[in-house]
Amino acid sequence: MRVKMTISYDGSHFYGFQVQNSGVETVANRLYEIFRSLGIEGRFEASGRTDRGVHATGQVLSLDLPPFWRDFERLKRAFNQKALPHIYAQRIEAAPPAFHARYDAKKRAYRYLVSQGAPSVFRTPYLLYTKAFDPQRIAEAITLFEGAHDFTLFAKTGSDVDHYVRTIFRTRFYRHDDLYVFGFEADGYLRAQIRLMVSFLLKIGRGELACAHLLSQLSGEKRYVSEPIAPNGLYLSRIWY
Length: 241
What we know:
The chain is built from five helices and ten strands; from the N terminus they run βαββαβββαβββααβ. By secondary structure, the protein is of the alpha+beta class. The protein has helices spanning about 25-35, 70-85, 135-140, 195-205, 210-220, and strands spanning about 1-10, 45, 55-65, 85-95, 105-115, 130, 145-150, 165-175, 180-185, 235-240.
């Protein structure tokens, strides 16, 4: 039986998502261990692969279950007993036989969290503490990313892709309690793209760069920012199908 499984995980405890054979713990490696212990063999697909230190609150998997796991709530309980505290299954639901978590995705959302407050050792793995910035400057600049653009200069060097055009449907920048949240919804992303965009926006917020510089890099004229922001504030938050 084909199913769609929505999970969250704490990326600070893993060396990225994808399977590695070097003995390090990755999200996918741990998932395969859990599935095998539950009698679930075969491969699964994920909606996207997150880098080391990146978290997820809405990662989606597609996989086939053996007949004895027809009770999804029972499976969720059994899975979470083994997966917690660093991975958690939110939902398991029936899916069409050909459902593919990655290729069927229409839109993906990420959030990046920053704070200008006093650092806490209990929060540093989950958000970025940064120098003071002007929120209004960032709110104005972030909308420039909306639309279809060639993000060649907003991708990490060595990205293995066929093309660099991505469409960002919606951007958001808002305050929630003591946090500032950067939000992006797009058809897909290049490697480190969001972290490079947030890095650029923070420089605009601090007055180090201007919107004109962003437009120049976005058009491919000149690269002003090449170093991605730290991964710890980034969350894969939702997938649309």
